[in-house]
């Protein structure tokens, strides 16, 4: 009988929580095979960005919360490293699982590798080619030093091979974010979040914006919001705003661009929604407008047209599938992409390879094999 494998997962932000939930479930299905601990760095700390996701996704309370909070990139990364080092030392894991491309991901990878621990990166190999994005730096650095790289699609694997990553470090497992979507879609549907706001199915759009490049300069934020409003004069655009974005809107005095009356045409600012309510809203909408990464993937599986408010994407498979349009962030680009998206029917294409709800199961199987 072999000893149980000791696994620590480190998460810090909203999308990390969505991705870790099915991994924990997959490990928990084999209680004699794995001992698992969950560390929350505290990068996201608002209940609306953190606690509500733990509740919706039925994630156990973290064993440790490092409580690092917000700060500059250097400050946040350094705080995670300082606080995580003794936790890793005390638990002595066989494997440290890091997820996605946020500051907590890179910080945990650096800390664990320098302690000589085996690091497995979930969602490896995504590349936008845009080093102005902090996430691109986090992705490249994490993949360069993590030992094991779990990829969501074949394009990600090809990116890693181009960077001379050895074949035996790359594991094509599929998409854990879609594992969560598969498990929770029916429950989310029953919440009928759109109807609760007085909206007709496919009669409204959903907007999310939080990238510094889009929200930190008032002129850019105004250009994006005005383009959306002008391209969709006849429908309601529901905008659950990230706290950072809400603050920028207030600071820039742009509040008059929005309404607080759902059901009428215009952009309606609402509080950030939990996982289930947000999924429910997106599943029924006419189109999504976003600068998020994960939402490009979720809309691909839901078959909902997505207009990406960025100049590039690290998830080109979503464009190949035909659900996603890269609009850029200029007025002309946004209006053009919205006009195209309005003509699109919901996609009936099958989801990408291995986006089948079983990625976490594959990950657990591979980790189990390392310590047999
Ligand atoms: C982070 C990730 C981003 C990811 C996003 C998901 C990095 C570099 N960025 O962006 O890749 O797409 O999470 O949501 O890791 N704030 C709050 N409450 C919170 C957390 C943050 O009000 O619970 C505010 C603070 O003003 C903070 C700002 O949001 O300074 C930015 O937070 P931060 O964690 O640095 O980045 P996000 O924009 O959330």
Strands, helices and their partners?
Elements: E1 5-11, H1 14-28, E2 34-40, H2 51-56, E3 64-65, H3 73-91, E4 95-99, H4 103-114, E5 118-124, H5 134-145, E6 148-151, H6 154-162, E7 170-172, H7 176-191, H8 193-196, E8 204-208, H9 212-215, H10 218-231, E9 236-240, H11 243-251, E10 258-259, E11 266-270, H12 275-283, E12 287-290, H13 294-302, E13 306-308, H14 317-320, E14 324-326, H15 331-343, H16 359-370
Parallel strand pairs: 1-2, 1-4, 2-3, 4-5, 5-6, 6-7, 8-9, 8-12, 9-11, 10-11, 12-13, 13-14
Helix pairs in contact: 1-7, 1-16, 3-4, 4-5, 7-12, 10-15
The structure holds uridine-diphosphate-N-acetylglucosamine.
The site of uridine-diphosphate-N-acetylglucosamine has 16 residues, from helix 1, helix 5 and helix 11.
How does this structure look, described?
By secondary structure, this protein is of the alpha/beta class. It is built from 16 helices and 14 strands. Strands 3-2-1-4-5-6-7 form a seven-stranded parallel β-sheet, with helices on both faces. It has a seven-stranded parallel β-sheet with strand order 10-11-9-8-12-13-14, with helices on both faces. The mean pLDDT is 96. The site of uridine-diphosphate-N-acetylglucosamine has 16 residues, from helix 1, helix 5 and helix 11.
In one word, what is the shape? Answer: globular
Give the CATH topology of the largest domain.
Rossmann fold
Number of domains: 2
Structural class: alpha/beta
Distance between the termini: 9 Å
């Amino acid at each position: 009988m072999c000893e149980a494998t000791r696994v620590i997962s480190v998460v810090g932000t909203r999308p990390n929580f969505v991705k870790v939930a099915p991994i924990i479930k997959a490990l928990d299905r084999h209680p004699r095979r794995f001992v698992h601990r969950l560390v929350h760095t505290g990068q996201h700390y608002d209940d609306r960005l953190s606690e509500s996701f733990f509740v919706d996704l039925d994630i156990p309370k973290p064993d440790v919360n490092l409580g690092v909070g917000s700060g500059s990139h250097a400050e946040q990364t350094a705080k995670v490293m300082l606080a995580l080092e003794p936790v890793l030392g005390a638990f002595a894991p066989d494997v440290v699982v890091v997820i996605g491309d946020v500051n907590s991901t890179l910080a945990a990878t650096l800390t664990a590798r320098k302690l000589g621990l085996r690091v497995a990166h979930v969602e490896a190999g995504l590349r936008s080619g845009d080093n102005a994005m902090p996430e691109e730096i986090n992705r490249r650095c994490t993949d360069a030093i993590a030992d094991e790289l779990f990829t969501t699609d074949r394009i990600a694997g090809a990116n890693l091979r181009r960077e001379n990553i050895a074949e035996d470090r790359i594991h094509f497992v599929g998409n854990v974010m879609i594992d969560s979507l598969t498990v929770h879609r029916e429950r989310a549907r029953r919440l009928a979040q759109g109807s609760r706001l007085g909206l007709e199915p496919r009669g409204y759009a959903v907007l999310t914006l939080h990238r510094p490049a889009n929200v930190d300069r008032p002129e850019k934020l105004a250009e994006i919001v005005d383009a959306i409003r002008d391209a969709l004069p006849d429908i309601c655009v529901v905008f659950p705003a990230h706290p950072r974005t809400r603050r920028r809107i207030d600071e820039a005095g742009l509040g008059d661009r929005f309404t607080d009356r759902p059901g009428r045409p215009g952009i309606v600012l609402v509080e950030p929604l939990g996982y289930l309510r947000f999924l429910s809203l997106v599943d029924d909408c006419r189109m999504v407008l976003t600068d998020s990464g994960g939402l490009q993937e979720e809309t691909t599986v839901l078959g909902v047209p997505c207009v990406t408010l960025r100049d590039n994407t690290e998830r080109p498979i979503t464009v190949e599938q035909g659900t996603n349009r890269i609009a850029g962030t200029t007025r002309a680009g946004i209006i053009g992409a919205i006009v195209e998206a309005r003509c699109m029917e919901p996609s009936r294409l099958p989801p990408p390879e291995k986006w089948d709800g079983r990625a976490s199961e594959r990950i657990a199987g591979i980790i189990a094999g390392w310590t047999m």
